[in-house]
Amino acid sequence: MQSWRRRKSLWLALSASWLLLVLLGGFSLLRLALPPRPRPGASQGWPRWLDAELLQSFSQPGELPEDAVSPPQAPHGGSCNWESCFDTSKCRGDGLKVFVYPAVGTISETHRRILASIEGSRFYTFSPAGACLLLLLSLDAQTGECSSMPLQWNRGRNHLVLRLHPAPCPRTFQLGQAMVAEASPTVDSFRPGFDVALPFLPEAHPLRGGAPGQLRQHSPQPGVALLALEEERGGWRTADTGSSACPWDGRCEQDPGPGQTQRQETLPNATFCLISGHRPEAASRFLQALQVLAALQEMSPARVLALRQQTQFLWDAYFSSVEKVIHTTLEVIQDRIFGTSAHPSLLWNSPPGALLALSTFSTSPQDFPFYYLQQGSRPEGRFSALIWVGPPGQPPLKLIQAVAGSQHCAQILVLWSNERPLPSRWPETAVPLTVIDGHRKVSDRFYPYSTIRTDAILSLDARSSLSTSEVDFAFLVWQSFPERMVGFLTSSHFWDEAHGGWGYTAERTNEFSMVLTTAAFYHRYYHTLFTHSLPKALRTLADEAPTCVDVLMNFIVAAVTKLPPIKVPYGKQRQEAAPLAPGGPGPRPKPPAPAPDCINQIAAAFGHMPLLSSRLRLDPVLFKDPVSVQRKKYRSLEKP
Amino acid sequence: MCASVKYNIRGPALIPRMKTKHRIYYITLFSIVLLGLIATGMFQFWPHSIESSNDWNVEKRSIRDVPVVRLPADSPIPERGDLSCRMHTCFDVYRCGFNPKNKIKVYIYALKKYVDDFGVSVSNTISREYNELLMAISDSDYYTDDINRACLFVPSIDVLNQNTLRIKETAQAMAQLSRWDRGTNHLLFNMLPGGPPDYNTALDVPRDRALLAGGGFSTWTYRQGYDVSIPVYSPLSAEVDLPEKGPGPRQYFLLSSQVGLHPEYREDLEALQVKHGESVLVLDKCTNLSEGVLSVRKRCHKHQVFDYPQVLQARWFWEAYFQSIKAIALATLQIINDRIYPYAAISYEEWNDPPAVKWGSVSNPLFLPLIPPQSQGFTAIVLTYDRVESLFRVITEVSKVPSLSKLLVVWNNQNKNPPEDSLWPKIRVPLKVVRTAENKLSNRFFPYDEIETEAVLAIDDDIIMLTSDELQFGYEVWREFPDRLVGYPGRLHLWDHEMNKWKYESEWTNEVSMVLTGAAFYHKYFNYLYTYKMPGDIKNWVDAHMNCEDIAMNFLVANVTGKAVIKVTPRKKFKCPECTAIDGLSLDQTHMVERSECINKFASVFGTMPLKVVEHRADPVLYKDDFPEKLKSFPNIGSL
């Protein structure tokens, strides 16, 4: 009995301890005892190895390549690349100089115009010996004339065969080391980094100028179709944002969804257009499978906005005319010659593009007026005044004093361009004054003189009349718009129905599209553009009809910026500055109008009319406001 | 532990039959229970340290325990690498499908040890670096443990160093992976494709279509756009501590630090050094280092000793892409990810610009220079609560503006219904009323679907003083500056030197940096930015304070475009929260304090002061000129 009782108490103690053990430790023990299982939802991941510390490194000292000599790679036989097949030694001097083989026999009008366009470009050289690239045009599809092997062929070394349209001729000679620029090259024959791929150009593609992109607004219009899909024979199927794609299983049996097929030549109005190559069915399946629609819907408005603008920019900058396509090809080759000092990608990919941001000027974006914001920099706070003294040749003493009085003026350059001898004495100024003896040519005014040391140029005519505060205010405005011209006096272009051409007027109107360069701020880069990128014919035109030079300069800047110039207030209606300053509303001496046909000749050479009109003037914030003059910084601008 | 538990379970049933030995038995039993209790107790009090040191969901094993796989000598070998592989030919994008995060899913095969028929291992199981690499992938967002959902497969077979493996057998090991399928969508990492003296340029292991992330590619082995070229990791780099880059430009333009260069290359470099002097530095191995100095961490030029890699001057790139195995692994996956989801790809700038550069530079979302057509017109958005009478006057006035194309009333009052349709003024353009869910100021900047024009005029329900000319001119100015805020009264931010913070200024100043959005034109894209991309808690702050939504908009636009506002016309104030309030000065001061507070708050959230100060405003070309009023386009431009 006793033992039973003892046993009973023992039993009790045992079971109590047992219970405690189970309660306290059961779970922990179980967790230890059972192999660990992942929690539902949590992924298992790569194991943390217990002995990870003991693992050996993948390489032993001495195995890494930096300690060993690597033999140079022998050039691969057969195929060409830039290093092995192009001789850059001929191009070291002044960049890419191109010789074009003259056409043999009868040639088409297009061919002739393309030849003329290359001959007018800054790349052209007339001597094959001095050329770094020899260009062979091969583009006459109709005439059936096929080019034969040219004289200086030399196994094609440093040659570029330009085929704007798919090869019309059987190859009559081996291309050898010649680069080929052609539309839609095949993967088999295309040598990356050596050949140049061109877009497929329709026969009617404009030679120069070209239609500007059709994009008139930055963002897509609400409600336009999201996607247009190219179908056979020029049709387009548009799909809406509403049409849902198929469930994700890589297969999709039903109809591609609501949409409509339009038969039209032009691109439809859709946010995205998918061009399918030559197999629309394949593309259609590709679409369904990839659920492009869903992916496109997923694309953020910011991205859509950027892509829209980028495509238009690329079109305008490189593709809209045959001339641009050819110049782009040459620019690509020139970049290869320049190697590391070629255009950085920013210059290719943001407005105005590599054709208008000359790498001969600089390859550093901050030197151009276009990239300050992207670079996080600002134009420097000083300008150089460039005063042109044409006939009759009075030294502009008052003007020099007024300009030198500006705190932003860094230097004054006087461009003496008339028959009278140089005066020996010049006024004392706070800033350095340099006199350049010009060549009596009007185009000299826009020569990129190495003595100009600032980004900003204040271009002046000896007969201009400005006050110091006008200069100060205008320069401040220019700093906000460094890529534009900021001027005081304006003129306009207009379409003259009666004559079926462009007209020019310096009358005061509610809008303007040009500022006179006899008193205007602009970036010094435009001197380089004027001198080195304009066709020679246009510069000659300016020399022969001096008043044309204003129009020409405004054309260049507008073609680059695609924006109108900026007008700032011009204080006094000065009578003595009659040729420049229009007087009151009554009869007043007009500035000499450019030769009537000047604007039309320039427009023809540009291939389009780049000028744009502005309806505003930038005034000081308190300009002519009825508040105390003491508060105003630019009070002298308001004097009658 | 397992065993003891089982023993306990059987225990009680045995007791009655073992009377003689019961004493020993009980003692044993008690000690076991006691031990169990102590052990349990330890787990109760210490488990935290155990759990935190490694997650329970991560396997914790030794590398010695990984399963062994025997590869028969005749098991299949993959084809040699297919050199023609490109993303669209050899990669199966359909596996990746569409996913909302635009991230590929990466699966890692479990670690195995491969041996041949004789039990001799094929390679080292895994190196420290490869383990680290797989761990980095496993910890990243790319990782999935579901092999069926994966789009990219990473074998755990370590091929980082070709010298440590048997080529044929390693290839056989690859071929028997469960999803191998000719290597489609498999990614191999290799840093040392061979050893000195004749390094190969790519891994020799036959790998068929598998992608290779390799160090040391040449143009002959690299498959353009398919393989990924990665740096060769140096185990020594883990301990490198780089100095911050000092101010000013870099000391060297060109620096070569590689030792063991081919003599011809070295000659070329040295010629460059002779030509360019100080700006070129060519380093080599040091020959005269004192004992104990790690030679791999030093480079020499003549007798000058430099710390390596500190001398390299490229800290950001080094840290972002070279320094660690993790950086190399994640950059590789990002590159592949960008190819598969190109529309969500990381931009050039994001790859290349150190984050600090972003403060200065901007990439304007409306970068294409465009002057939107006048015909598009603008949408006026009137935010209103319950001032119906004033609202109706505003509607009537605004409807007189020629370019108005739609009027949107944002009814911000949830307690009251808008007036019946018949009571609204009859105007010539569509009028829509949008009711909001909450009375928030942010509602004025919501990108409503009803906005069909790019130009938006935000206007308060009490702005009745603006003339039709003034508004039309404002729209014209916006067309010339579509990426800016174009408004009427201007305001300024100033730095308060005494308080050491920003101050809001509404006095007569010669400068402006903000415009009030009580009436302002802007691009509708900024509504999207305001609603979805406003940094920090600014939106909530505005709604909580019921103030400063205009300052927030000014900050946002200036920050994203880097450009100043355009103030139009002399207009100085609308109504008078700032001057003629009922209790005058005190309210005025409270208002100013609150507005100043907003500027300081926003500047701290943006991390910078994005507002730009300018001294100009836009007026019509002939504003206040001596010119017949009736010939001016905008004669009635209003007053202060």
Automatic annotation (TrEMBL), chain B:
Q: Exostosin GT47 domain location, by residue?
A: 101-314
Q: Name one GO biological process term.
A: heparan sulfate proteoglycan biosynthetic process
Keywords of the record, alphabetical order, are: Disulfide bond, Endoplasmic reticulum, Glycoprotein, Glycosyltransferase, Golgi apparatus, Manganese, Membrane, Metal-binding, Signal-anchor, Transferase, Transmembrane, Transmembrane helix
- Job description of the protein: Glycosyltransferase forming with EXT1 the heterodimeric heparan sulfate polymerase which catalyzes the elongation of the heparan sulfate glycan backbone. Glycan backbone extension consists in the alternating transfer of (1->4)-beta-D-GlcA and (1->4)-alpha-D-GlcNAc residues from their respective UDP-sugar donors.
Family recorded in the similarity comment = Belongs to the glycosyltransferase 47 family.
What is the scientific name of the source organism? Homo sapiens
- Tell me the compartments it is located in: Endoplasmic reticulum membrane; Golgi apparatus, cis-Golgi network membrane
| Residues annotated as transmembrane | 24-46
Q: Can you state which reaction this protein catalyses? A: 3-O-{[(1->4)-beta-D-GlcA-(1->4)-alpha-D-GlcNAc](n)-(1->4)-beta-D-GlcA-(1->3)-beta-D-Gal-(1->3)-beta-D-Gal-(1->4)-beta-D-Xyl}-L-seryl-[protein] + UDP-N-acetyl-alpha-D-glucosamine = 3-O-{alpha-D-GlcNAc-[(1->4)-beta-D-GlcA-(1->4)-alpha-D-GlcNAc](n)-(1->4)-beta-D-GlcA-(1->3)-beta-D-Gal-(1->3)-beta-D-Gal-(1->4)-beta-D-Xyl}-L-seryl-[protein] + UDP + H(+)
Q: Which GO terms describe its molecular function?
A: glucuronosyl-N-acetylglucosaminyl-proteoglycan 4-alpha-N-acetylglucosaminyltransferase activity; glucuronosyltransferase activity; metal ion binding
Q: Which Pfam families match?
A: Exostosin_GT47 (PF03016), Glyco_transf_64 (PF09258)
Record keyword Cytoplasm present: no
Q: Does this entry carry the keyword Isomerase?
A: no
- Cofactor(s) required for function per UniProt: Mn(2+)
- Please give the chief subcellular localization of this protein: endoplasmic reticulum
| Positions of the Glycosyl transferase domain | 378-623
**What superkingdom heads the lineage?**
Eukaryota
Which pathway is recorded for this entry? Protein modification; protein glycosylation
Q: How does it assemble?
A: Part of the heparan sulfate polymerase, a dimeric complex composed of EXT1 and EXT2. Could also form homooligomeric complexes. Interacts with NDST1. Interacts with GALNT5.
EC number of this enzyme: 2.4.1.224
Gene Ontology CC terms: endoplasmic reticulum membrane; Golgi apparatus
This protein's membrane topology, according to the annotation, is: Single-pass type II membrane protein
What this protein is called in its record is: Exostosin-2
List the lineage, top down. Eukaryota, Metazoa, Chordata, Craniata, Vertebrata
